[in-house]
């Protein structure tokens, strides 16, 4: 695989920058940060209207004729602009999972709706008191004729306040890992309640509660008690996506600040910036490989874990190092008039704290890489 940017990519980049300059609004960034939303509905509708959400998807499921390379370049520009797209990222993960595990009816209804910007799917995995152990799920789904009745609670259901559906992990029988089943549950269904939870990173996530929620069996994704097989596919796509808090343009802006402040020639500063630049390039290459495997129809298992592990830890290293570089004023947030780089470093630092937990902890990523790529013995029994 050749990672060197080619002429077509450079052309896409220029076109994407022109598109971003015409359509992106600085107030969207301020709005997202102040609300802790990590998703902007106006931006989402814009991307759908321009066919960018549907680029590269099969035509039979609503794919557009927009060039996939141009769409990828636009998404990178949006990311570097400082706008989050968590609602689309989680939707994208679930759509890829549906392509491999969903029924034809689910594919022909949910995928086109999402590509038109009409459906936003959030993740309902984590439960109160269970941490990242999805096999400890206690939210129950009980059959009732051709329907299921769901009762339970989930934590960290990010973007549920703006979503249309939740990809909900439930327990349908007792065996720990083989008693799990997934459902696509409308968030406006009777018995669903969404409550805000605000994090130290400034993000508004949610606690969601399910009380006697009835869904048809057609909302089930995968086999009854087959949720563990579904979640293993879903997690591959979560780990193989571009890390939300790794901000390539931030280092360039910090380097410009260092030049303007007259400290860029200091050996310690120059070495730190060089190390961060190396981290950025490695993160880009690992992520590009995982995305290439996905685009080629494969599952970026170990590759996704490698990308997730490195980019999440590199983001934390970068933001901590930039706080040191910019000095005491770097902890000022965006509302402070003297905040260097408009408070972006402080915001990014707080947001990156969860990156080594979401989607699987760094310890789990290292175990997957050790067993799957290096052939080392597992440190715990295989999940069944």
From TrEMBL:
Domain Acyl-CoA oxidase/dehydrogenase middle: 123-208
GO molecular-function term, one example from the UniProt record: flavin adenine dinucleotide binding
Record Pfam families: Acyl-CoA_dh_1 (PF00441), Acyl-CoA_dh_M (PF02770), Acyl-CoA_dh_N (PF02771)
Cofactor(s) listed: FAD
Keywords: FAD, Flavoprotein, Oxidoreductase
Keyword Metal-binding assigned: no
The name this protein goes by in its record: Acyl-CoA dehydrogenase
Native source species: Cryptosporangium aurantiacum
